[in-house]
Amino acid sequence: MNYELRITNCELNFGSVSRKPRFGIHRVSDAETLTRFIPWKHLRVSFHVLLCSVLLTFAVESASAQQSPPPDDDAPEQVVHEVGVNLLSNGDFESADDEDDERPAGWVPFDGITAFWDRENGVDDSGCVLLDNTPEKDQVYEVWERLRLDGDREQVTDLVPRQGTYSTIASTYGALCWSEYVGVEPDATYKLSADVKAVGVDDPEKQPLVMLWLKGYIQHRGRLRVIYKGRKECHDLTDEFQNFSRIYHPTKQTPRVHTMRVMLVAYFPVGYAWVDNVVLEKIIEEEE
To answer: Which pLDDT belongs to residue 82?
Structure first.
């Protein structure tokens, strides 16, 4: 069984409706002809209005097709990077912030519950970041909300006892931290690498999955908006550091990207991960 939408007592006169329309849905049998689905006797439209509408639509679409995309709001000037130079100012986690010597420079301040500055367990007993995805996710959400509201980044010492494997932050967002923002050179190729190790809590053979994310941004309505994402998954981790890397092309498919930053994440399984010597550099790919 089919249905038709009837509009009755309606007359269009150069864009004005002379009478209040009435709408109704009427059942139509399959045996009825196609003309029953177009009840022209109930709808009288001025031919001039229809013709003008078609011409106006065509003109607007043609003009829109010739216009270039609007520029980003307050987009920064284009940058040019030197090949082989680490674009992260403190990728080895050795330098303290000028205003707070309890946190590393060049990184968004760690949340104090899933991410910590570890000054002793990096490569050759140096500094690194410790990612801990064992806290209860509800408590982590509360800390993140407090950070959003008032910026309080005191280290959390009164952790809620872990209720189970899937109640931890490992099962959702994971433990994470962010680098500083870096400008993007158009059409450039970048390599992101890091030394990573991890240990599992519930099962020594099941270490956290660490990911090295590179995210690209545009300026949209006064805010940075992510339009590019790439990641390197670090599998088969052990309690010894291994180097992982991946090549990224932030502007190949998303040419409007002008800013990028690194995100380090330790996902499920539950455990601890250490990341050191994070390097983001421009490279020249060899042609095959």
So the answer is: 92
Lowest mean pLDDT segment, chosen from 144-158, 192-206, 238-252, 255-269 = 144-158
Per-residue pLDDT for 69 more than 50? no
Q: Which fold has domain 115-283?
A: Jelly Rolls (2.60.120)
List beta partners, residue 275: 129, 196
Give the per-residue pLDDT at 161: 80
- Where in the chain are all domains bearing CATH 2.60.120? 115-283
Q: Output the pTM of the full model.
A: 0.73
Q: Which residues contact 84 (CB under 8 A, 6 or more apart)?
A: 281, 282, 283
Q: pLDDT tens for residues 262-278? A: 999 999 999 999 999 99
